[in-house]
């Protein structure tokens, strides 16, 4: 019997709460408790539990793997926020703002170790499969983050490079979350790899949608500052496509806009959005989101699971793609 997304969330959150014990030294564990308690959609751990169920495993066996993914994801956020000098995460002060940078570094380090430690709850062969996948994924996430940093100072980033960056920085973790559920459930290697591909394509679509919502989302429901990417001169898919579609004059203007740091950020955001709309970049981004979503759905055909389970995964994908946050 499959559960609803909300039920998986509830099960995961109560497991997370039992796991979070503030030990000494408090200044190491309180920030960990804080960031893990900030909420968020718990998207990745829910995927781990759901995938275990889809392959007829007991989702409760997947709780430690799900927790590992969530702890790792939040570790990467703590360090990303330091690198980005971000004041807010999910509408609340970031760890390094609430405490200080050193605390953010050290508590993040501890979280990375804790994420690994959770695999110790599995028997040897599953432990090995999970740890191998985790190491590969964690390194890719670091590579993706480095590409992201490199792109800030480069003016020749291609669409292909950008897609590789978001695949590594975001999509592989979604993919790994699903594959871990399949590993714990004892699914075949083929099914493990296919569900990984499903998650990866959905993850790329998810990140492109994030790019899109950053510019065109509703400030009331979008958890981050709308136009944040524009203010920070981030060369997102929207930006790269706008350049690709523009004539020389507009290209120069867009490039200058994304090299500027004006007092009046609202005008800058508005201008950028107009370029995204008029160049056709906003539309192209929507099409790319659809392309990767459909690519994910195509993979479902080859999974050895019942049709209603395929429908369930599809419904999950649709709910992700119709979000406003």
List key phrases describing it.
single chain; 325 residues; mainly alpha; Farnesyl Diphosphate Synthase; 2 domains; two-stranded antiparallel sheet; globular
Description:
- It is globular and about 60 Å long.
- The model has no long low-confidence stretch (mean pLDDT 94).
- Strands 1-2 form a two-stranded antiparallel sheet.
- The longest helix is centred in the middle third of the chain and has 29 residues, at 124-152.
- A hairpin with a 2-residue loop joins strand 1 (88-89) and strand 2.
- The protein folds into two domains: 1-139, Farnesyl Diphosphate Synthase (Orthogonal Bundle); 188-325, Orthogonal Bundle (Farnesyl Diphosphate Synthase), CATH 1.10.600.10.
- It has 325 residues and is mainly α.
- The protein has helices at residues 5-19, 26-36, 43-54, 63-84, 95-98, 101-117, 124-152, 159-184, 189-216, 228-231, 237-245, 248-257, 265-279, 281-300, 307-321, and strands at residues 88-89, 92-93.
- Helix content is 73%, strand content 1%.
- The chain is built from 15 helices and two strands.
């Amino acid at each position: 019997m499959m559960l609803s997304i909300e039920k998986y969330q509830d099960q995961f959150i109560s497991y997370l709460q039992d796991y979070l014990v503030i030990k000494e030294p408090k200044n190491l564990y309180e920030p960990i408790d804080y960031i893990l308690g900030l909420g968020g959609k718990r998207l990745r751990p829910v995927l781990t539990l759901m995938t275990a169920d889809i392959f007829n495993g007991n989702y409760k066996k997947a709780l430690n793997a799900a927790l590992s993914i969530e702890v790792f994801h939040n570790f990467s956020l703590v360090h990303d926020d330091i690198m980005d000098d971000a004041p807010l995460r999910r509408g609340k002060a970031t760890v390094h703002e609430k405490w200080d940078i050193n605390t953010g570094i050290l508590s993040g380090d501890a979280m990375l170790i804790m994420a690994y430690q959770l695999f110790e709850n599995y028997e040897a062969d599953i432990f090995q499969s999970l740890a191998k996948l985790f190491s590969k994924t964690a390194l890719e996430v670091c590579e993706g983050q480095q590409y992201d940093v490199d792109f800030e100072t480069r003016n020749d980033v291609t669409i292909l490079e950008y897609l590789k960056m978001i695949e590594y920085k975001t999509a592989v973790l979604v993919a790994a979350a699903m594959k871990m559920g399949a590993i714990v459930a004892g699914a075949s290697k083929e099914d493990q790899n296919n569900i990984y591909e499903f998650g990866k394509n959905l993850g790329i679509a998810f990140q492109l949608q994030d790019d899109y919502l950053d510019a065109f989302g509703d400030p009331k429901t979008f958890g981050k500052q709308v136009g944040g990417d524009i203010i920070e001169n981030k060369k997102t898919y929207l930006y790269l496509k706008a350049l690709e579609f523009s004539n020389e004059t507009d290209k120069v203007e867009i490039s200058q806009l994304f090299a500027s740091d004006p007092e009046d950020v609202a005008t800058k955001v508005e201008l950028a959005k107009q370029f995204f709309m008029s160049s056709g970049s906003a539309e192209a981004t929507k099409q790319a989101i659809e392309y990767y979503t459909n690519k994910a759905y195509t993979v479902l055909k080859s999974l050895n699971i019942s049709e209603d389970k395929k429908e369930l995964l599809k419904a999950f994908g649709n709910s992700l793609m119709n979000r406003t946050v």
